[in-house]
Specification:
Elements lengths: L1 E2 L5 E6 L2 E7 L9 E2 L12 E6 L5 E6 L4 E5 L4 E5 L6 E4 L5 E5 L5 E5 L4 E7 L7 E4 L6 E5 L2 E5 L12 H6 L10 E4 L7 E6 L5 E6 L3 E6 L5 E7 L6 E6 L5 E6 L3 E11 L2 E11 L4 E6 L5 E6 L2 E6 L4 E7 L7 E4 L6 E5 L4 E5 L28 E8 L5 E8 L13 E6 L14 E2 L1 H4 L2 E8 L2 E6 L3 E6 L7 E6 L7 H6 L1 E2 L5 E5 L2 E5 L6
Parallel strand pairs: 12-16
Antiparallel strand pairs: 1-2, 2-3, 3-4, 5-6, 6-7, 7-8, 9-10, 10-11, 11-12, 13-14, 14-15, 17-18, 18-19, 19-20, 21-22, 22-23, 23-24, 25-26, 26-27, 27-28, 29-30, 30-31, 32-33, 33-34, 34-35, 36-37, 37-38, 38-39, 40-41, 41-42
């Protein structure tokens, strides 16, 4: 049962009878309007779905045999569309497009009035049980099981607002070009974590089926599967050490695996077990020491240091509550770690995780950290060191309680000179507040030479040279919007050579040589 858009009529359908329409403003004793069945349209006695056209003058009916019939109420005409075979359907609010899905889950967009195919998304895995358009008609959504998917194909974006019906009926021509046929990549094993090697020869991906795979950076060719977590777990954190000797990963069940790699010959890798442990909570950060003998495993409430040679934990600290910090290896003193949170900066020893800030000199007045914003409910979400090791760059964001948050709202950019780490009071270091620059940042990607690389709100990859004017931002290349979502933005990375990697479902886009400083 469905109401017409103007709420003046109601259509009803049930098995064994053709659809009926009542005029709700007429006499209650009225007889309903009934579609006239013909021999060729006996299928109307087995209706499965009804949809009103936005103007309210006609009704679309899906029959049990997947025949689509358009019932024009005023002239009692019934138009059969034998080429569509839908199971579910939705009509855009402007009445220009019909969205359908078939029994296999393939979605198609058709243009009225002749229902010419405009776009098709082929899916052979899941049955779609509900469809709808966005109010502007430029996106559509489907529900499969417990998952809702959003799609924004270019085929729905029109350059003008001229009448589609008028143009498509002149001279029996249609303004629609050849239909776009695509496969639904979301049915592939999705990439959930990504990291690159330091030499720009390979990259490594973790997938939602638990596999960790090395691929060539030049053409994306798969080299080998390194190892696998459980097939029901997704890899959510993946790090390749700077020397390329170690890969460590964590899945969404807090299972941690570390392997040592050796290249035996061209594209031949030997893999040796190092760690296989499980923690009580998800890993927020992996960090190797400069000599890669030690590995820091950091969660929201604890930190653990493991010896990669002995394969044993050498120390750990439990903080008693969720922390908002990130760690970075001290660029000047290899035996130390630097703790950075929105409020404080401290140094700790690798071997004991003991506080190593020097005692305060009574003759020196300590500075108060004033990063330019309140640290309440803030977290350090991302941190990096410039290639010249002179500046630590980090971002703070409002805490959502979710470890993978990458929302840009409230993003604050901080710069910390490594020369300040020599001072007697690391906890008193103040950093430069870059509020104007942070307002242009959608997502921080990395550092390249002495620049900060970020994605702006127009999806351009940009660089800003440290110590230049705040608004001296250079745009290099832009990313297609249909390639990006919150997940891919989170995983996009930049290696030391400036090559940019961005995953989407089972593929990785690689932009090499895009940063010309």
């Amino acid at each position: 049962m469905v109401l017409s858009p103007d709420r003046s009529k109601v259509a009803m359908a049930w098995r064994g009878k053709p659809p009926l329409v009542w005029n709700m403003s007429a006499d209650p004793a009225q007889q309903p309007q009934q579609s006239r069945t013909r021999k060729s349209t006996d299928a109307l006695c087995a209706p499965e779905n009804l949809q009103w056209m936005p103007h309210g003058d006609s009704l679309l009916i899906i029959c049990e045999n997947t025949l689509l019939v358009e019932w024009c109420l005023y002239d009692e005409e019934q138009i059969e569309h034998n080429h569509i075979h839908p199971r579910e359907m939705a009509i855009s609010q402007d009445g220009n497009f019909l969205l359908t899905s078939d029994h296999a889950g393939t979605m198609s967009v058709w243009m009225f009035p002749r229902l010419t195919l405009v776009y098709r998304l082929v899916n052979e895995n899941e049955y779609i049980r509900s469809l709808t358009f966005s109010p502007d008609g430029q996106r559509f959504y489907d529900i499969r099981g417990s998952v809702c998917n959003a799609w924004e194909p270019d085929a729905l974006v029109r350059a003008d607002e001229e009448s589609l019906e008028d143009q498509s009926s002149v001279g029996d021509l249609s303004i629609a070009t050849e239909p776009v046929i695509r496969s639904d990549e979301s049915s592939q094993c999705q990439i959930t974590a990504l990291t690159g090697d330091p030499e720009d020869r390979y990259f490594c991906v973790g997938r939602d089926n638990g596999t960790v795979i090395i691929q060539e950076a030049l053409d994306g060719k798969r080299i080998r599967k390194v190892y696998g977590h459980s097939s029901t777990s997704a890899v959510i954190n993946l790090v390749w050490s700077a020397s390329g000797r170690y890969i460590v990963s964590c899945d969404d069940s807090s299972h941690i695996i570390a392997k040592r790699l050796e290249v035996k010959s061209e594209a031949k890798w030997a893999v040796y077990a190092v760690l296989d442990i499980r923690l009580a909570e998800s890993v927020q950060q992996f960090l190797f020491s400069h000599d890669e003998k030690l590995l820091l495993i950091s969660t929201a409430t604890s930190d653990h240091v493991w010896n990669m040679k002995t394969k044993k934990e050498i120390c750990s600290r439990r903080w008693g509550s969720r922390q908002s910090r990130r760690w970075i290896a001290h660029p000047l003193r290899p035996s130390l770690l630097v703790w950075i949170d929105p409020k404080e900066v401290h140094t700790y020893t690798w071997s004991t995780l003991e506080h190593s800030d020097p005692p305060q000199d009574p003759s020196e007045t300590p500075q108060v950290l004033t990063p330019g914003h309140s640290s309440t409910n803030k977290i350090v979400q991302w941190i990096a060191l410039t290639e010249n090791q002179q500046t630590i760059v980090y971002e703070t964001l409002p805490s959502t309680g979710h470890t993978s948050t990458r929302a840009s709202s409230g993003l604050h950019l901080e710069l910390l000179s490594t020369s300040n780490l020599r001072r007697q009071h690391p906890h008193a270091i103040s950093s430069d507040c870059m509020a104007d620059l942070a307002g242009r940042v959608k997502r921080l990607i990395g550092t390249y030479q002495d620049t900060i690389v970020f994605l702006d709100h127009d999806y351009w990859v940009c660089t800003w040279r440290i110590e230049s004017e705040v608004l001296d931002v250079k745009r290099h290349f832009f990313l297609p919007r249909d390639w990006l979502n919150s997940g891919t933005l989170q995983m996009a990375v930049l290696n030391r050579q400036g090559s940019f990697f961005c995953p989407k479902y089972g593929d990785v886009a690689i932009v090499r040589g895009g940063l010309r400083l």
